[in-house]
Amino acid sequence: MPRAVVCRELGPPESLRLETFDAVPLAPGQVRVAIRAAGLNFPDVLMAAGEYQLKPPLPFTPGMEAAGDVVEVNQAAGIAVGDKVIVKMRHGAYSDEAVAAPSQLVKLPSTFDYAEGATFLAGHGTAYHALIDRGRLQPGEVLLVHGAGGGVGLAAVEIGKMLGATVIATASSDEKLEIAKERGADHLIRYDREPFRDAVKRITDGQGADVVFDPVGGEVFENSMRCINWGARLLIIGFTGGIGLAKTNLLMIKGASVLGVRAGEAVRRNPALGEVRIKALTGWAEAGKVRPNVSHRLPLEDYARAMRLLIDRKAIGRVALVME
Protein backbone atom coordinates (compact mmCIF):
# COMPACT_ATOMS: atom_id res chain seq x y z
CA MET A 1 0.00 0.00 0.00
CA PRO A 2 1.23 3.53 -0.70
CA ARG A 3 2.40 5.67 2.20
CA ALA A 4 2.02 9.35 3.02
CA VAL A 5 3.12 11.70 5.78
CA VAL A 6 -0.08 12.94 7.42
CA CYS A 7 -0.73 16.02 9.54
CA ARG A 8 -3.70 15.32 11.82
CA GLU A 9 -2.90 18.03 14.36
CA LEU A 10 -0.95 21.24 13.87
CA GLY A 11 2.48 21.28 15.41
CA PRO A 12 6.19 20.49 14.89
CA PRO A 13 7.47 17.91 12.39
CA GLU A 14 7.50 15.24 15.10
CA SER A 15 3.70 15.47 15.38
CA LEU A 16 3.28 14.20 11.81
CA ARG A 17 2.74 10.49 11.14
CA LEU A 18 3.65 8.14 8.31
CA GLU A 19 0.51 6.23 7.32
CA THR A 20 -0.60 3.88 4.56
CA PHE A 21 -3.64 4.59 2.42
CA ASP A 22 -5.76 2.97 -0.29
CA ALA A 23 -5.13 4.26 -3.79
CA VAL A 24 -8.27 5.87 -5.24
CA PRO A 25 -9.52 5.27 -8.81
CA LEU A 26 -8.71 8.00 -11.31
CA ALA A 27 -11.43 10.30 -12.56
CA PRO A 28 -11.44 11.23 -16.25
CA GLY A 29 -8.66 13.71 -16.96
CA GLN A 30 -6.50 12.55 -14.05
CA VAL A 31 -3.02 11.00 -13.93
CA ARG A 32 -1.37 8.83 -11.29
CA VAL A 33 2.30 9.53 -10.60
CA ALA A 34 4.58 7.21 -8.66
CA ILE A 35 6.59 9.72 -6.66
CA ARG A 36 10.33 9.00 -6.61
CA ALA A 37 11.37 12.15 -4.70
CA ALA A 38 9.67 15.03 -2.89
CA GLY A 39 11.23 18.42 -2.29
CA LEU A 40 11.10 20.14 1.09
CA ASN A 41 10.31 23.84 1.39
CA PHE A 42 10.07 26.00 4.50
CA PRO A 43 6.35 26.63 3.87
CA ASP A 44 5.83 22.90 4.49
CA VAL A 45 7.05 23.42 8.06
CA LEU A 46 4.89 26.51 8.50
CA MET A 47 1.83 24.80 7.03
CA ALA A 48 2.16 21.82 9.39
CA ALA A 49 2.38 24.27 12.30
CA GLY A 50 -0.63 26.29 11.13
CA GLU A 51 1.56 29.37 10.55
CA TYR A 52 1.38 29.63 6.76
CA GLN A 53 -1.10 31.73 4.78
CA LEU A 54 -2.52 28.55 3.21
CA LYS A 55 -4.26 26.44 5.88
CA PRO A 56 -5.50 23.14 4.42
CA PRO A 57 -8.24 21.35 6.36
CA LEU A 58 -6.99 18.53 8.57
CA PRO A 59 -5.84 15.92 7.84
CA PHE A 60 -3.48 16.77 5.00
CA THR A 61 -0.10 15.74 3.61
CA PRO A 62 2.63 18.40 3.36
CA GLY A 63 4.83 18.94 0.35
CA MET A 64 4.60 21.35 -2.58
CA GLU A 65 6.66 19.58 -5.24
CA ALA A 66 7.63 16.10 -6.32
CA ALA A 67 9.06 14.17 -9.25
CA GLY A 68 8.34 10.68 -10.50
CA ASP A 69 6.90 8.45 -13.21
CA VAL A 70 3.43 8.46 -14.72
CA VAL A 71 1.98 4.99 -14.03
CA GLU A 72 -1.68 5.44 -14.97
CA VAL A 73 -3.64 7.81 -17.23
CA ASN A 74 -7.41 8.25 -17.54
CA GLN A 75 -8.31 10.27 -20.61
CA ALA A 76 -5.61 12.88 -20.02
CA ALA A 77 -4.32 14.26 -23.31
CA GLY A 78 -0.60 14.71 -23.85
CA ILE A 79 0.46 12.42 -21.00
CA ALA A 80 1.60 8.81 -21.36
CA VAL A 81 2.51 6.01 -18.97
CA GLY A 82 6.26 6.10 -18.45
CA ASP A 83 6.65 9.87 -18.70
CA LYS A 84 9.11 11.30 -16.19
CA VAL A 85 7.55 14.40 -14.66
CA ILE A 86 7.72 17.10 -12.02
CA VAL A 87 4.47 17.49 -10.07
CA LYS A 88 3.42 20.96 -8.88
CA MET A 89 1.22 20.86 -5.76
CA ARG A 90 0.01 23.12 -2.98
CA HIS A 91 0.39 20.19 -0.57
CA GLY A 92 0.48 16.39 -0.79
CA ALA A 93 3.99 15.62 -2.05
CA TYR A 94 5.31 13.67 0.97
CA SER A 95 3.83 10.47 -0.40
CA ASP A 96 4.52 7.45 -2.58
CA GLU A 97 2.03 8.58 -5.18
CA ALA A 98 0.03 11.57 -6.35
CA VAL A 99 -3.14 11.96 -8.37
CA ALA A 100 -2.82 15.07 -10.53
CA ALA A 101 -4.20 16.95 -13.50
CA PRO A 102 -2.02 17.35 -16.61
CA SER A 103 -1.73 21.07 -15.84
CA GLN A 104 0.21 20.16 -12.69
CA LEU A 105 2.85 18.22 -14.60
CA VAL A 106 6.09 19.44 -16.17
CA LYS A 107 8.48 17.22 -18.10
CA LEU A 108 11.51 16.31 -15.99
CA PRO A 109 14.60 17.92 -17.57
CA SER A 110 16.87 15.27 -19.05
CA THR A 111 19.81 16.73 -17.11
CA PHE A 112 18.13 16.16 -13.71
CA ASP A 113 17.60 13.15 -11.49
CA TYR A 114 14.34 12.81 -9.54
CA ALA A 115 15.61 14.61 -6.43
CA GLU A 116 16.79 17.57 -8.52
CA GLY A 117 13.48 17.67 -10.36
CA ALA A 118 11.59 17.60 -7.06
CA THR A 119 13.55 20.57 -5.73
CA PHE A 120 13.58 22.74 -8.85
CA LEU A 121 10.42 24.69 -9.61
CA ALA A 122 9.54 26.08 -6.17
CA GLY A 123 12.98 27.54 -5.45
CA HIS A 124 14.00 28.57 -8.94
CA GLY A 125 10.44 29.63 -9.78
CA THR A 126 10.39 31.93 -6.78
CA ALA A 127 13.79 33.39 -7.68
CA TYR A 128 12.68 33.91 -11.29
CA HIS A 129 9.45 35.63 -10.30
CA ALA A 130 11.25 37.80 -7.76
CA LEU A 131 14.14 38.94 -9.93
CA ILE A 132 12.42 39.17 -13.32
CA ASP A 133 8.69 39.77 -12.78
CA ARG A 134 8.92 41.84 -9.59
CA GLY A 135 12.45 43.20 -9.25
CA ARG A 136 13.11 43.88 -12.94
CA LEU A 137 16.80 43.17 -12.36
CA GLN A 138 18.98 44.70 -15.07
CA PRO A 139 22.48 43.79 -16.30
CA GLY A 140 25.13 45.68 -14.36
CA GLU A 141 22.99 46.20 -11.27
CA VAL A 142 24.08 45.05 -7.82
CA LEU A 143 22.01 42.21 -6.37
CA LEU A 144 22.25 41.47 -2.64
CA VAL A 145 21.09 37.93 -1.84
CA HIS A 146 20.40 37.05 1.77
CA GLY A 147 20.30 33.44 2.90
CA ALA A 148 22.40 32.53 -0.12
CA GLY A 149 23.07 29.06 1.27
CA GLY A 150 19.37 28.17 1.16
CA GLY A 151 17.41 26.79 -1.74
CA VAL A 152 15.79 30.00 -2.99
CA GLY A 153 18.90 32.02 -2.14
CA LEU A 154 21.17 29.83 -4.24
CA ALA A 155 18.64 29.94 -7.07
CA ALA A 156 18.67 33.75 -6.87
CA VAL A 157 22.47 33.78 -7.01
CA GLU A 158 22.43 31.52 -10.06
CA ILE A 159 19.73 33.43 -11.95
CA GLY A 160 21.02 36.86 -10.90
CA LYS A 161 24.46 36.10 -12.28
CA MET A 162 22.97 34.74 -15.48
CA LEU A 163 21.04 38.01 -15.89
CA GLY A 164 24.28 39.99 -15.73
CA ALA A 165 24.11 41.38 -12.18
CA THR A 166 26.97 41.76 -9.74
CA VAL A 167 25.92 39.33 -7.01
CA ILE A 168 26.69 39.82 -3.32
CA ALA A 169 25.88 36.68 -1.31
CA THR A 170 25.40 36.56 2.46
CA ALA A 171 25.30 33.40 4.56
CA SER A 172 26.18 32.02 7.98
CA SER A 173 29.10 29.72 7.12
CA ASP A 174 32.09 29.40 4.80
CA GLU A 175 30.69 26.14 3.44
CA LYS A 176 27.47 27.84 2.33
CA LEU A 177 29.35 30.76 0.84
CA GLU A 178 31.63 28.43 -1.09
CA ILE A 179 28.60 26.86 -2.80
CA ALA A 180 27.25 30.35 -3.52
CA LYS A 181 30.59 31.24 -5.11
CA GLU A 182 30.40 28.12 -7.28
CA ARG A 183 26.95 29.25 -8.44
CA GLY A 184 28.24 32.67 -9.50
CA ALA A 185 28.42 35.00 -6.49
CA ASP A 186 30.96 37.78 -7.03
CA HIS A 187 31.29 38.86 -3.38
CA LEU A 188 30.78 36.87 -0.18
CA ILE A 189 29.72 38.12 3.26
CA ARG A 190 29.52 36.10 6.46
CA TYR A 191 26.98 37.59 8.83
CA ASP A 192 29.14 36.99 11.92
CA ARG A 193 32.35 38.55 10.59
CA GLU A 194 31.22 41.98 9.45
CA PRO A 195 27.87 43.80 9.55
CA PHE A 196 26.56 43.12 6.08
CA ARG A 197 25.32 46.67 5.60
CA ASP A 198 28.90 47.92 6.11
CA ALA A 199 30.27 45.26 3.78
CA VAL A 200 27.77 46.14 1.02
CA LYS A 201 28.71 49.81 1.24
CA ARG A 202 32.40 48.88 1.11
CA ILE A 203 31.94 46.58 -1.89
CA THR A 204 29.85 49.14 -3.80
CA ASP A 205 31.95 52.21 -2.91
CA GLY A 206 29.09 53.57 -0.84
CA GLN A 207 26.41 53.23 -3.52
CA GLY A 208 24.54 50.27 -2.06
CA ALA A 209 22.53 47.45 -3.63
CA ASP A 210 20.03 48.00 -6.43
CA VAL A 211 17.99 44.88 -5.65
CA VAL A 212 17.75 43.02 -2.33
CA PHE A 213 16.53 39.41 -2.31
CA ASP A 214 15.36 38.69 1.24
CA PRO A 215 13.95 35.33 2.36
CA VAL A 216 15.07 36.01 5.96
CA GLY A 217 13.24 39.11 7.18
CA GLY A 218 13.59 40.42 10.74
CA GLU A 219 16.71 42.46 11.41
CA VAL A 220 18.14 41.44 8.03
CA PHE A 221 15.36 43.34 6.27
CA GLU A 222 15.70 46.32 8.60
CA ASN A 223 19.46 46.58 8.01
CA SER A 224 19.05 46.08 4.27
CA MET A 225 17.27 49.43 4.08
CA ARG A 226 20.54 51.02 5.25
CA CYS A 227 22.66 49.74 2.34
CA ILE A 228 20.53 50.39 -0.74
CA ASN A 229 21.08 52.53 -3.79
CA TRP A 230 18.68 55.15 -5.13
CA GLY A 231 15.60 53.46 -6.64
CA ALA A 232 16.35 50.12 -4.98
CA ARG A 233 13.84 47.28 -4.96
CA LEU A 234 13.62 45.19 -1.79
CA LEU A 235 12.07 41.80 -2.54
CA ILE A 236 10.31 40.12 0.38
CA ILE A 237 10.50 36.37 -0.19
CA GLY A 238 9.85 35.07 3.31
CA PHE A 239 10.43 35.55 7.01
CA THR A 240 12.51 32.67 8.36
CA GLY A 241 14.18 35.17 10.71
CA GLY A 242 10.98 36.91 11.80
CA ILE A 243 8.82 39.77 10.54
CA GLY A 244 10.81 42.87 9.60
CA LEU A 245 9.67 46.44 10.24
CA ALA A 246 9.90 48.99 7.44
CA LYS A 247 11.56 52.33 8.19
CA THR A 248 9.53 54.46 5.83
CA ASN A 249 11.92 57.40 6.09
CA LEU A 250 14.79 55.27 4.77
CA LEU A 251 12.65 54.07 1.87
CA MET A 252 11.54 57.59 1.03
CA ILE A 253 15.06 59.04 1.10
CA LYS A 254 16.28 56.43 -1.42
CA GLY A 255 13.13 56.39 -3.55
CA ALA A 256 13.01 52.66 -2.82
CA SER A 257 10.25 50.09 -3.27
CA VAL A 258 9.35 47.11 -1.11
CA LEU A 259 7.80 44.30 -3.17
CA GLY A 260 6.11 41.18 -1.85
CA VAL A 261 6.89 37.98 -3.76
CA ARG A 262 4.37 35.13 -4.01
CA ALA A 263 5.31 33.14 -7.08
CA GLY A 264 2.53 30.56 -6.77
CA GLU A 265 -0.26 33.06 -6.14
CA ALA A 266 0.93 35.22 -9.04
CA VAL A 267 0.50 32.26 -11.40
CA ARG A 268 -2.91 31.37 -10.01
CA ARG A 269 -4.04 34.93 -10.78
CA ASN A 270 -2.23 35.10 -14.13
CA PRO A 271 -1.49 31.63 -15.59
CA ALA A 272 0.39 33.14 -18.53
CA LEU A 273 3.18 34.18 -16.14
CA GLY A 274 3.69 30.54 -15.18
CA GLU A 275 3.92 29.36 -18.77
CA VAL A 276 6.68 31.86 -19.56
CA ARG A 277 8.50 31.05 -16.31
CA ILE A 278 8.46 27.26 -16.76
CA LYS A 279 9.55 27.50 -20.39
CA ALA A 280 12.52 29.65 -19.39
CA LEU A 281 13.51 27.53 -16.39
CA THR A 282 13.28 24.17 -18.16
CA GLY A 283 15.20 25.60 -21.11
CA TRP A 284 17.96 26.79 -18.80
CA ALA A 285 17.97 23.38 -17.09
CA GLU A 286 18.33 21.50 -20.38
CA ALA A 287 21.18 23.84 -21.32
CA GLY A 288 22.95 23.12 -18.02
CA LYS A 289 22.67 26.72 -16.80
CA VAL A 290 20.70 26.04 -13.62
CA ARG A 291 20.56 23.11 -11.20
CA PRO A 292 19.36 22.72 -7.61
CA ASN A 293 22.01 21.93 -5.03
CA VAL A 294 20.54 18.98 -3.09
CA SER A 295 22.65 18.70 0.05
CA HIS A 296 20.56 15.99 1.74
CA ARG A 297 18.55 13.04 0.41
CA LEU A 298 16.65 11.11 3.06
CA PRO A 299 14.09 8.28 2.91
CA LEU A 300 10.41 9.14 3.34
CA GLU A 301 10.32 7.77 6.89
CA ASP A 302 12.93 10.36 7.93
CA TYR A 303 10.57 13.26 7.12
CA ALA A 304 10.88 14.84 10.59
CA ARG A 305 14.68 14.86 10.46
CA ALA A 306 14.53 16.28 6.94
CA MET A 307 12.21 19.09 8.03
CA ARG A 308 14.49 19.81 10.99
CA LEU A 309 17.35 20.40 8.55
CA LEU A 310 15.38 23.36 7.21
CA ILE A 311 14.39 24.64 10.64
CA ASP A 312 17.97 24.44 11.94
CA ARG A 313 19.38 25.85 8.67
CA LYS A 314 21.64 22.86 8.17
CA ALA A 315 20.80 22.40 4.51
CA ILE A 316 22.90 23.93 1.77
CA GLY A 317 20.45 24.43 -1.04
CA ARG A 318 17.69 21.85 -0.96
CA VAL A 319 16.58 18.74 0.91
CA ALA A 320 14.72 15.86 -0.74
CA LEU A 321 12.81 12.84 0.49
CA VAL A 322 13.64 9.87 -1.74
CA MET A 323 11.24 6.95 -2.14
CA GLU A 324 12.46 3.47 -2.93
From TrEMBL:
InterPro entries given in the database record: ADH-like_C, ADH-like_N, ER, GroES-like_sf, NAD(P)-bd_dom_sf, Zn-ADH-like_protein
Give TM segment ranges.
none
> Which Pfam family, any one, appears in the UniProt record?
ADH_N
Q: Which residues form the signal peptide?
A: none
Any one GO molecular-function label of the UniProt entry: oxidoreductase activity
Please report the stretch or stretches of sequence annotated as the Enoyl reductase (ER) domain: 11-321
In Swiss-Prot or TrEMBL terms, this protein is called NADPH:quinone oxidoreductase
